[in-house]
Amino acid sequence: MFEAKFQTFADASHSDASEPRLKSLRAKFAEENLDGFLVPRADEHQNEYVAPCAERLAWLTGFSGSAGFAVVLQDEAAIFVDGRYVLQVRGEIDDKLFAPLDIAEIQPARWLAEHAAKGARIGYDPLVHTCAQIERFTKALEGKDVALVAVERNPIDAVWDDRPPAPQGQISVYPARHAGASVKSKLALIRKKMEGVDALLLSDPHSLAWAFNIRGADVAHTPIALAFALLPADGTPTLYADEAKLSHKVKAALEKFLSVAPPQHLAEDLREAGARGETILFDSATAPAKLVEALRAAGGKAKLADDPIALPKAIKNEAELAGMREAHIRDGAALTRFLAWFEEEALKGKLTEISAAEALETFRREGGELRDISFPTISAFGPHAAIPHYRVSESSNLKIGRGVYLVDSGAQYLDGTTDVTRTVVVGRASKQLRDHFTRVLKGHIAIARAVFPKGVSGSQLDAFARRHLWEAGLDFDHGVGHGVGVYLSVHEGPQRISKFGSTSLEPGMILSNEPGYYRAGEYGIRLENLVVVEPREIKGGEREMRGFETITLAPFDLNCIEPSLLTEEEAAWLDAYHANVRKTLSPLIDAKTRRWLRNATRKVWE
C-alpha cells in the first residue's frame, strides 16, 4: 500500500569497510609525500546535500551525517561532529580507527596542531576547502613546523575504486509565476552590490539557481545544478555547466541572457582575468580555495566577502510567499491525513519507523504535486527520537509501540519547500513527558508570538524558545530555527534563530521555529513550524516592529500537553492556531480525517 520513492532505508554506514580503506589512504600518503590528510564532508560548493561521488567522509569513516570533518594521520585519526550527531557518530564508526569528538569542545585545527609530528606535511584538496578554512588551519599550526600541502588530486578519489560518476541531472527553467522576478531585474540588483569589482563568481548553486531562475537535479532532495557562473560588472554572464545537463530548449532559453561554457574552462578564465589585473568577488563561505588561488597566482585580486545574493534570495517576494503558503496548505493536508492514520494504526503494534516514513511520503505523493522530499524523513520512535538527526535504516528500524514517536519531514513542491516536525505519544503520556513537551511547546509559542524591533537578529530571539526549559535545568544543542528556500534548500542562510544568528530578520524571510528536548536513551521532543517575518504595527509604539506569520498547518498532540502549565495567552494562541488548521484543511481531507481533526484541534482547556 505504501512505498517510498524519494528515499531509501539501506544502511548508510559501512564501518566494517573503514579499516582497509583507511589503510589504502595511508599507503597513498607515501606516494604523495604526505603525513596526513584533511577530509571534510563537502563538495566543491560546500553543499549540505552532496552527490554520491562527493561522499568521501562517509566512504572512509562510515559516518552518514550531513556535517562532519576527519583528520587522518599515519598512526591516528579523529572525526569531528556537532551536537546533532554526537550520539549518531558513535553508532556508525569504528572508534578504534577514528576518535569521535565534539567539534564544540575541540576544533579539528587545534587537534591537528596537538597531534601532528614535527615536520609533518598535511595534505588537503583545495577544491573542497574554502580559503577561510585553510587559514584557520594555517593559524593553528603557526610555530608547529607542520606544513599544509594542496594536492592536485584527492588521494581518496585515487583509492576509491567504485566511486560514482559526477551527476548529470537536467537543468530546467523555473517558471516566472513562481519566481516572481525576472533574471534581468535580479542581475541588476546583484550588480548594485558589486561596487569596486570587475566580476562576481557564483559558487553557491542555490544563489545561481535564484539569480538565473533555474533549477537542477544533481543532488538528492534539493533541486540545484552543480555549476559555477561568472557575472561581470558589465556584459554577459557565463554559466560553467556540463552541456549534457542542458536540453536544446533550455539552452536556447538561457542563452538569451548568458553564455554556456564547459566547467573545465573556469580556472583558465580566472587566470586570464588575473592576467588583466581584474578584481573578482568570491563568496567566502563557498568558493573553493583552488579557484581563488588561480586568480591570485595570475596577478588578479580576490575579494572574499559574503555572497551578495544570499540576502535578496532570503527576502521572498509576493509570488514566492504566495507559493509557499499554498504549498503548506497542500502539505498540511497530507501530514494531517498521516497523523490521523498513524494514531489508529500505531496502537495495532504493526508499524515500524520505516513503514511510517513510507506512509507519510505516500500521503504527500497522493496530492499529485510532490517533486521530492526536502530531506530524508526523521522517523524516530522512543530512544531514537533522542537523536536529533536520526536516520532510520533497515538495521536500526524499530517497531513502534507505546511511547514517543517523532517525525521530522518535508516536501519539495514547484511552488514551495516545507519542513515540519510533530511529536506524538502512542498510548498515555507520562507526567514527565507532558511536562517536557509543554515546556518545548511554550518555547515554540514564545517564538510564534514574538514581536521585536527592526534590526533584531535571531541571536536575540534564541532564548525565547529556551526559557521554560532553562527554568527546569534543561536545554537542547541545536539552533531554534534556520532559513528555508522556495523550491530550493530546506536549510538556507543567512537568517537563522540561534546563538550565532547575526543577520537582522527582515519581512519576507522564512524561518523554522523548532525548539526541542532530548532525553538520551528514552525519548526526544521537537515541535516545528515555518514562519514568515512580517511587519507588525503596535498601537502607540515608537519603533518599526516585526513579528511572525505561521504558515505550517498541522495539529499538535493535545495528549502530550499539561494544560495547567500554559498561560491564558499561550492557550489562546494554541486554540487560534488549531482553529485555523481545522478551517483551512477540512475542505481538503476525507470525512473520517475531518472527524479526527475536530477532536485533535479541540480547545486545550476543554
Automatic annotation (TrEMBL):
Entry keyword RNA-binding: no
Pfam families the record matches: Creatinase_N (PF01321), Creatinase_N_2 (PF16189), Peptidase_M24 (PF00557), Peptidase_M24_C (PF16188)
Hydrolase listed as a keyword: yes
GO cellular component annotations of the record: cytoplasm
Record keywords, A-Z: Hydrolase, Metal-binding
Residue ranges of domain Creatinase N-terminal in the record: 21-149
Molecular functions (GO terms): metal ion binding; metalloaminopeptidase activity
Domain called Peptidase M24 C-terminal: residue spans: 545-603
Peptidase M24 domain: residues covered: 323-534
UniProt record similarity statement: Belongs to the peptidase M24B family.
PANTHER family: XAA-PRO AMINOPEPTIDASE 1
Designated name of the protein: M24 family metallopeptidase
